[in-house]
Write a structure and sequence with these properties.
Largest sheet: 5 strands, antiparallel
Mean pLDDT: 93
Number of strands: 9
Structural class: mainly beta
Strand order of the largest sheet: 1-2-9-4-7
Oligomer: single chain
Order of helices and strands: HHEEEEEEEEE
Length: 108
């Protein structure tokens, strides 16, 4: 996968221009999903839960990642690992690109 090319594509789509965020599923296999996300400054992904464990890797920019009472400031190169069904939310502190890996239970 060429992430740079995928990010260029995300930036060209109306979703990015209109909503300030966009994503693309790079692979979706039984038990594994890989999602590339582009988040504009101030974009917030409301609290939600994943059916399986996940990793959230910040490629560029910075975000605040909240899981329960724990709050982490993540910058480019930082990665967080989270168990399944833990409520969490993300807020982009600046334009950020992130790679989300969802494992375990099939994701819809």
């Amino acid at each position: 996968l060429r992430l740079g090319e995928q990010l260029e594509q995300l930036r060209e789509e109306p979703t990015w221009r209109g909503r300030g965020r966009n994503s693309i599923t790079l692979t979706k296999e039984p038990g594994l999903r890989l999602v590339l996300m582009l988040l504009g400054k101030g974009t917030r992904l409301s609290e939600h839960r994943a059916a399986g464990p996940l990793t959230f890797h910040v490629l560029t920019g910075s975000v605040t990642f909240r899981a329960g009472a724990r709050v982490e400031s993540l910058r480019a190169g930082d990665l967080i690992v989270l168990e399944s069904t833990v409520p969490h939310e993300v807020e982009a502190l600046e334009e950020s690109t992130c790679l989300l890996t969802l494992a375990g239970a099939a994701q819809e």
